[in-house]
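Hey, resending since the last one bounced:
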Amino acid sequence: MTQQPTRPSIYFNVHLVSDSTGETLNALQRAACAQFENVHPLEHNYYLVRSERQLDRVMKEIEAAPGVVWFTISDAALRSRLEAFCRERGIPTLPVLDPSIAMLSRHLGIAPNNRVAGQHALDEDYFERMEAINFTLAHDDGQNMDTLIGADVILLGVSRTSKTPTCVYLANRKVRAGNIPLVPGVPLPDFMEKLDATGPLVVGLKISAERLVQIRRQRLISLNHDDLADYADEEAVRDEITQANRLFQRNKWKTIDVSRRSVEETAAAILNLLHERWSQHP
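The structure tokens again:
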């Protein structure tokens, strides 16, 4: 079987212009570019662009490094000026929120308010998210066990199973998440094995020994630590994983294999488990 030649890498400029924090633009651009092999966008980010002077600086940089322009700008005058500038120079532009807003406008039968950073309003939703983030940071890596029972979800896993980033991601979805590292010889708090359907959802994060050894060895290299050989020893890692899996099975806790999952995929699976539980026990 003839092997297909590898497509050469493609590098191109992507200018992301936002009158807000740019989170939406970054997420959409990276999701789109991930669909193309060996494509590497060179990001130019411009946030909180809300004045003519700020836009002037942006346009100078676009002209100096032409590519494509994605933007989320609510002010009609500013966006018209940016579009005209790019059109004159043959630079493609994409107002990424326009199709979604237009569809909702047609469906709802009302016009959008074109409010800048409307999704960041200091409303009840915002404060719920901040509360969840504060809770998660206070209950990371086994901290404050006495109040951990107030969590929506508790993640358990051996070291390097992405417990912390998964909890932070969940907190941004207004989920009060905490996590406890499983360390050989260190018992869990007493309340953990007595939880019922009215308490926090407990999820065990499983991982293959091969994957965990690889991750831990890379971690040791990055920290320049050669004195923690057992941490990445294959036999020790297998024993550690076996003990964790037996704990999950004994308590009949839900588990998710994170060996080849991204943090986003793991969090999505946990959100599905939470929604299922909440529908059964509102």
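The chain has a mean pLDDT of 89.

Sorry for the duplicate.
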